[in-house]
């Protein structure tokens, strides 16, 4: 009898970070920062000191005082991450075109 114990591959560090970032929600829109398209880049060098470039929906975003810290803490909590440096960037400006399909669904129906 052949047994098929096909084990799913372990998620990569970047996949684990993305899962963690999906737990951070924009308090106004009720959608996570990943699906809103607020995360522009995640760099993971050999040192595992992660660098995240993110933006906000606007320079005057009311969540500006909390979202970057929440993003950094979520990424830092991932096993294997040595530290996190977060850059708040404004170029290119965020637009609704960056929202994922899941994010659009959540904005319209998920709340």
Automatic annotation (TrEMBL):
PANTHER family from the UniProt entry: FE-S PROTEIN MATURATION AUXILIARY FACTOR YITW (PTHR42831)
Domain of life: Bacteria
Domain MIP18 family-like: 15-85
Phylogenetic classification of the source organism: Bacteria, Pseudomonadati, Pseudomonadota, Magnetococcia, Magnetococcales
A Pfam family: FeS_assembly_P
InterPro entries the record matches: Fe-S_Maturation_MIP18, FSCA_dom_sf, MIP18-like
Protein's UniProt name: MIP18 family-like domain-containing protein
């Amino acid at each position: 009898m052949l047994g098929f114990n096909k084990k799913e591959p372990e998620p990569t560090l970047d996949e684990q970070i993305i899962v963690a970032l999906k737990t951070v929600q924009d308090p106004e829109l009720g959608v996570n920062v990943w699906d809103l398209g607020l995360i522009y880049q995640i760099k993971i060098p050999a040192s595992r000191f992660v660098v995240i470039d993110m933006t906000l929906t606007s320079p005057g975003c009311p969540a500006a005082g909390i979202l970057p810290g929440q993003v950094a803490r979520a990424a830092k909590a991932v096993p294997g991450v040595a530290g996190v440096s977060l850059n708040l960037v404004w170029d290119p400006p965020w637009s609704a075109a960056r929202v994922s399909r899941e994010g659009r669904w959540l904005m319209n129906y998920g709340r």
